[in-house]
Amino acid sequence: MLVQMHFLQNYAPSNLNRDDTNAPKDAFFGGVRRGRISSQCLKRSIRRSPVFRAAFEADNLLGVRTRLLPELVREALQAQGADATAIEAIVRRVPEIGRESAKRSAAREEEEGEAASPRKAESATRQLIFLNRDELPPLAQKLWQLYQRYGAKQWAKAKIEDITKKLGASLPRSVDIAMFGRMTTSSAFEDVQAAVQVAHAISTNALIQESDYYTAVDDLSDEPGAGMIGDVDFNSNTYYRYLNVHWEQLLQNLGGDVPIARKAVVVLLEAAAVAHPSGKQNAFAAFNLPDVILVEVMRDNLPVSYANAFLKPVRPSAERSLIDASVAQLGDYMNRVIPVYDLEAQRAYVALQDDHQLPCAQRCASLRALQGWLEERLPE
């Protein structure tokens, strides 16, 4: 079963997701430059949102992405009563986790100051590791047991790949990891296939990039003029956003826990609707909710994005706003693509304006009503 969610959302002037030049991200689509918000940005805004946290944090069902695994292992070992010598020896090897498969040349090792002996002291792993905090106590305990089995001298000389293989992979019970997946290069952590796919949001309209020139005054200086000057790029767009949830994969990732999987999908809908990227929000405060949200529940795993509704950029007119025109183009595309490909699905949507209509879909009065509609169609 597949659950698909589509959003049309107009943002006021903003710089929500920046590139390496600090300008809002963009992309060419349909031969025209568009505004863009990356999928990575959208996923982080969802999983770090108050809605997501309120739903799952108390039950320890959220993960954390970090390079500070050594310190987390240290805290777990201390809680388990390991002696200080063992803790230091174990923690010294933890930054190597995730580097078992690295095949760098000896010259590269020397260039980076990483000759095998003596080892370079590091305080963090090379890669970000996405893990649930429930994984830490058993991981620390296994490391401690291995340290005792090896002995202090052998432990320091043992290959990290041998250590992590003996640890065995741990499978997290975490909603956000189950949804968005996990990939590491370490045998100590089981990879998780993402159950949720999130597209980059693209503007339905052609991009017009603008720049704000600003100055700041030194409050304590008697000299006239600005204490500093700067500029920041921004834009305003109507975005089409799309994501889908593969129900069977989500259920598998959550160990078959149907109630948690049902709750996760319903909460995801709300979080995706109300969460915002954090970029430059102190300067722009662009907290604009979606005008239209469409949800589709399909028996078959056939994901279909409606982004091609906007191959031809939307243009506002005196009679129709950018949102109005975007809804019209979305509805027209649905009318064309659904019958041609026989896209059987149950559909429902919510819209802010009465004249915003979508074909082949039931209209709901509110986001809560849409969540209830979705919940009724999820397996029990």
Q: Enumerate how many helices there are, as a single number.
A: 14
What oligomeric state do the depicted chains represent?
single chain
Count of discrete domains: 2
Q: Which stretches are low in confidence, meaning pLDDT under 50 for 5 or more residues running?
A: 103-120
**Net shape:** globular
Number of strand segments: 12
* Average pLDDT taken over every residue: 91
As a whole number of angstroms, the C-alpha radius of gyration is 25 Å
Please report the distance between the alpha carbons of the first and last residues: 13 Å
Helix content: 25-40%
How would you characterize the largest beta sheet?
Answer: 10 strands, mixed
Which percent band covers the strand fraction? 15-25%
Task: Describe the protein in words.
With 380 residues, the protein is of the alpha+beta class. The protein is 36% helix and 21% strand. The chain is built from 14 helices and twelve strands. It has helices at residues 39-47, 50-56, 69-79, 84-93, 106-111, 136-150, 152-157, 160-167, 175-180, 247-253, 258-274, 281-284, 322-341, 367-376, and strands at 2-14, 26-29, 32-37, 63-66, 129-132, 196-198, 201-203, 210-216, 228-246, 292-298, 346-351, 362-363. The strands form two sheets. Strands 1, 2, 3, 6, 7, 8, 9, 10, 11 and 12 form a ten-stranded mixed β-sheet that branches. A two-stranded antiparallel sheet has the order 4-5. A hairpin with a 2-residue loop joins strand 2 (26-29) and strand 3 (32-37). The longest helix is centred in the C-terminal third of the chain and has 20 residues, at 322-341. The two termini are 13 Å apart. Residues 103-120 have low confidence and may be disordered.
